[in-house]
């Protein structure tokens, strides 16, 4: 205690203020803002599909204009609509077998 009698106490004061709104950003808020911007950017983006001229030509050629084929399709549609179409399960099985195993 005797050593303290000869010394003067030095008092250091520090002023602490609230952070100003302009320079302080909450890290959580910053992350949340990025997420909101990202969602907004995704909402503006639209899906796009580009079909080549060659693909368009192939699609146009797909329509079969053979009158015999068109008549057969028309008859099959009519049978299906009337509930008269019968599936030949043996033919279906044979075609599936040929497709998968390449045999007749």
Automatic annotation (TrEMBL):
Pfam families: FlgM. This is Negative regulator of flagellin synthesis. SUPFAM superfamilies: Anti-sigma factor FlgM. It comes from Caldalkalibacillus horti. Belongs to the FlgM family. InterPro entries: Anti-sigma-28_factor_FlgM_sf, FlgM, FlgM_C. The keyword Transcription regulation applies. Keywords: Bacterial flagellum biogenesis, Cell projection, Cilium, Flagellum, Repressor, Transcription, Transcription regulation. Residues 47-97 form the Anti-sigma-28 factor FlgM C-terminal domain. Gene3D superfamilies: Anti-sigma-28 factor FlgM.
